[in-house]
Amino acid sequence: MQSNSRVHAKGAKVSQSSQSKTLRPLRNFSALSACKILLIALILSSCSTGSKLSNQNLSYIYNPELDELHPQFKVVNVKDSVSRLFFKIDATELLYTKKQGDTDFSANFTVSYQVIPAFEAREVLDSGSFVFEDRVEKPGSKDIISYLDFDSPYNGTYLVKAAVTDLNRNQIAKSFIEVDNSTINSRNNFYLKKKDADYPLFNLFLDENDYALYHKNKNVKTFMVRYYRINYPLAPPPFAIVNPKPFEFNADSLFTLQAGETVKLRSEGIYHFQVDSSDYEGFTLFKFDDKFPNVKNARAMLEPLRYITTKQEYTDIENNKNLKAGVEDFWLDASETNDRGRELIQKYYSRVEQSNKLFTSYMQGWKTDRGLIYMIFGPPNVLYKSSEGETWVYGEENNIMSLNFSFSRLINPFCDNDYVMNRSTIYKSSWFRAVDSWRKGRVYTDN
User: For the packed helices 323-335 and 338-359, what is the interaxial angle rounded to 10 degrees?
Assistant: First the structure.
């Protein structure tokens, strides 16, 4: 088992509202005026996780409504055997309290991690837990962003189990980050950040901001970039037996980018960055519409309706001169009342947005097989994850009446989040029952 001696936090960053403020290193925290963050390192070691993660029900990671905390994590390899776990916490999701006689409010939380070879492994390669205290005169909207360094396996892939615990509220939120450190093109060797920031982009969805890209190897000065236009069909129903076409790796265009150069990628599509073009691996960014992963315009509302409309209904809405009105009329006709219509719209499109956040691969998350099932059926009651795939259960586990879906993981050089459903005609009646529920103005849930 590796030592935890390298586990430490060197700095923190807090951004309030839409403006960012860079803090000094934590050892100088007493000089801060806007916000003081105190870090106390508590090193915890363990050589075993106990039960394998592949044997645990992880359904909570696909059901954000169960948690009040929704931290984001990002792992970047900084050296051959050292990786950096960045985290971002929305301060409004933490509980700030004021102790008797104290003039400041404080939030107390821990950030902990375990480095594990895979979902199927019990061995823990490295672990640590850190306690933070955020002291403010008045709680408000801001992001708390910082990082921890840890020992990581060199020349391989591994899993990071990360968690944030709000100590004032006694609530925890967990995430699982798969990391690759096997080749020079491994995606975690790349570091993309806003030009005025010192932390990476936490997701891979480009917006209109300018970014700069760097590599773990400081000698890397040039990236080769392959651009692919996005034009992929949405997933077919779970009972449809299809032969998916293999991805075509011939890029629509090629260009180079210098390390640290401003990245201005305005065209929608896939941008694949490589240091060595002798294989397909690399770092990938996705440019969808400007509001992605959120649903903020009529077109983004229309397209996911195809799962629950007839072809003619969809065409009629699409041809409506007022597209937004056409979409809203569909939901009002289904619900019969404005209140029910608003509820349907909120539930359906919240599932679209969560699918985008959870399942986006080389296409929007709602178009994928897992996004399809998530949108129509909701979060599963039971989720088992392994290195090879996922199993979703709706209803009680091992109950013959429960609905089970299995997804096989595909090797994809653009992402580690590409899964294909094992389709079967047995899903036909369950699918139409769920679709019919939505069409009759009822939010479908099989939980």
Answer: 110
Instruction: Give the Cα separation of 403 and 380 in Å (integer).
Output: 9
In contact, 350 and 336? CB cutoff 8 Å? no
pTM score of the predicted model:
0.88
Phi, psi of 338 (to 5 degrees): -65, -40
Domain architecture of the chain: domains with CATH: 12-181 (2.60.40.10), 298-439 (no CATH)
Per the listing, tokens 């809405």 go with 317
pLDDT (tens digit per residue) in 44-70 = 444 665 689 999 999 999 999 888 999
Would you state the torsion angle of the CA atoms of residues 285, 288, 290, 295, taken in this order, to the nearest 10 degrees? Answer: -120
β-bridge pairing 253-258 and 222-228:
antiparallel
Mapped onto helix, strand or coil, the DSSP state of residue 432 is helix
CA distance 331 to 324: 11
Inter-CA distances, 185 with 150, 189, 192, 199, 216, Å: 21, 7, 14, 20, 10
Rounded Cα–Cα distance for residues 174 and 177 (Å): 10
H-helix or E-strand spanning residue 374: helix 369-377
Nearest CA among 120, 116, 51, 54 for reference residue 391: 54
Query: 383 versus 248: which is more confidently predicted?
Result: 383
N- to C-terminal Cα separation, the chain: 41
List, for residues 198-235, the tens digit of each pLDDT value.
899 999 888 878 899 999 999 999 999 999 998 888 89
CA distances from 119 to 28, 72, 95, 177, 425 (A): 39, 20, 32, 11, 30
**Which amino acid type is present at position 318?**
E
- Tell which phi-psi region holds residue 110, choosing left (phi > 0), alpha (psi between -120 and 50) or beta: beta
Length of the chain: 447
- Count of CB atoms situated within 10 Å of the CB of 167: 16
